[in-house]
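I have been asked to look over a protein record a colleague put together. Alongside the sequence sits a line of tokens, each denoting a local backbone shape. Please read both lines and tell me whether the tokens look consistent with the sequence. I do not need a full report, just your reasoning and any doubts. I have pasted the whole thing underneath without changing anything.
>
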Amino acid sequence: MTATTPVFCTIVPPHVLDKLAQADDPALSGPARRTLVADSARRTRRRLTAVGVVPTATAPAGDGATGGPHRTIHDCEHGTALPGREVRGEGDQPGSDATVNRAYGGLGATFELLLTAYGRDSLDGAGLPLTASVHYDERYANAFWDGEQMVFGDGDGEIFLDFTLPVDVIGHELAHGLTQYTANLSYYGQPGALNESVSDVFGSLVKQYTLDQTADQADWLIGQGLLAPRVTGVALRSMKAPGTAYDDDVLGKDPQPATMDDFVHTGRDNGGVHINSGIPNHAFYLLADRLGGKSWERAGQIWFDVLTGGELAVDASFADFARLTLAAARSRFGDGAEHEAVAKAWSQVGVPTA
């Protein structure tokens, strides 16, 4: 297996926290600034780890292809030392902490989708144990995959609620681990936006699988239920209608484009990885909507085949990814409806496949 480059990936984009950090109300700006500082420190540590300056923690070895997850949930007790105190292991009964129970359930739901739909045993395909830490820091307004484990904040209570509430947030962050162990997409520009989009896709599929929804029944929202009641918005992102997830006096307006006509050129947020991911997100939604039925069965299978097929370069562009999805659709389903739907979806968002 080729070496992977773990990256630090958060569910709430830096541009959202930057906006909050400028708020006049200290109840909003304080937690946002604290979260930005914490994220910056973790991001720096991850970069140093990647180049060998900081030794990486050794994850517990898997037991091979067991067909079942190996989950461990830890409680940071509002500190920042990871992983924290172990509070629930695999097979343990639910306790009184709903956050712990949701994290445990979300790890299991993601594991089940990968195994049942795609025959993959955990993120690495070899039974990788799944570790999560909850109650991270004080009023921490984010959740992240740090290259080794999941971490969830409790939110600031003003803009963001508990980050274990939406199961797609859990699925999204774990999918960064899936990408890390497969295509290992770099985290800048278009490959970084693809990295984020793949996580949104599989996060949404985890939610749809858990709820047994068809494509037309799904809301295609990422982080629905995460925003506090005071926020004018429904979620962090919309795959069905990028740019419409929120329009709030404090947060501003959702900046995601739906097509290449509105591609955002920026040096911030690693070249706009959380913004331009709206384009491949929308392509996946259009494909799943056109095919109908359970999105993980055909649309998701095509995306999974590309991610795990070994041909997706770490610096792949949207067009590179699109061409591989066409090839994957033909390889698995022939030249029928699936291949046509893939071509149509990318055409609608302005990404060339020729």
About this structure: DSSP finds ten helices and ten strands in the chain.
